[in-house]
């Protein structure tokens, strides 16, 4: 392959890689910079009061609780005893509801039976927690109900929450969590979210934390939440409310001085953590600084790429023309009379 073609190929690949990374980094920055997020924010006390006062409207979410128990290590899941106590607290406070506990085998059978187009993506996930994320979304899409992580228990009846067609929790600290979710069956938001899962599964970042969150976890959920509201015009405060939106954010702030939680409590969890979680926990606490650094690095990469293109293509071409002209001059001055063989060599190399 000629040197120039090879150089152009390398530059093209470099530009494409930088462009792809820039698009995804910009998307991640946007996820963190969209606070307050779209949808109607509701305090837990306001939800309870509306239910008691009879102003909450019709109860639309089915009386169904989803929880997921995947033992991907084969050695048992940590905190099992505590998790079962937390699960029991929800069963006790939702008498008469259907309580579905999803095992790993049942989860895969469900995807294979109901959503076979997603099975290859489901099986290809690098990290088992991504399959847990996927089942949360597909179970709510298919059956509706309320999803509860195993490290959350119930303090009161969840009946008041059934009046809000789609809700997530919001800690007011970073992207929207996926530990507590609620929806009516076949809501357009969960169709949009689940249909978007395969498109995020091709890019594997060097950090497990980013791969998990961006491909299926809370960053993905937040991104889809914002996209859904923008797509349907629900970010506009003057947009009339209808059955499909805007959606609801139940405030669940952990910070000191915040309103006490009404419906849930929290136990030990985070069994999916990898080696890089502590790094990104720090990043989440310094999000503004990190965003500024990311923007600066992206701009620097753009400038460096431009400099490389100029040096390799434009400047190199000019220098090549000058070199060839210099060689012709040198030949004419130093060798005014050439033998036939020398003349043939010079002509072959375009020196005369």
Automatic annotation (TrEMBL):
What are the recorded GO MF terms, alphabetically?
mannosyltransferase activity
Q: What is its main location?
A: membrane
The membrane-spanning stretches of this chain are 293-314
A Pfam entry, by short name = Gly_transf_sug
Q: Do the record's keywords include Aminoacyl-tRNA synthetase?
A: no
| Cell compartment(s), UniProt | Membrane
For this record, the Gene Ontology CC terms, alphabetical, are: membrane
User: For this chain's UniProt record, which GO biological process terms are given?
Assistant: mannosyl-inositol phosphorylceramide biosynthetic process
Protein keywords = Membrane, Transferase, Transmembrane, Transmembrane helix
Family in the record:
Belongs to the glycosyltransferase 32 family.
Question: PANTHER family from the entry?
Answer: MANNOSYL PHOSPHORYLINOSITOL CERAMIDE SYNTHASE, MANNOSYL PHOSPHORYLINOSITOL CERAMIDE SYNTHASE CSH1-RELATED
Q: What is this protein called?
A: Uncharacterized protein
Q: Which organism is it from?
A: Talaromyces rugulosus (Penicillium rugulosum)
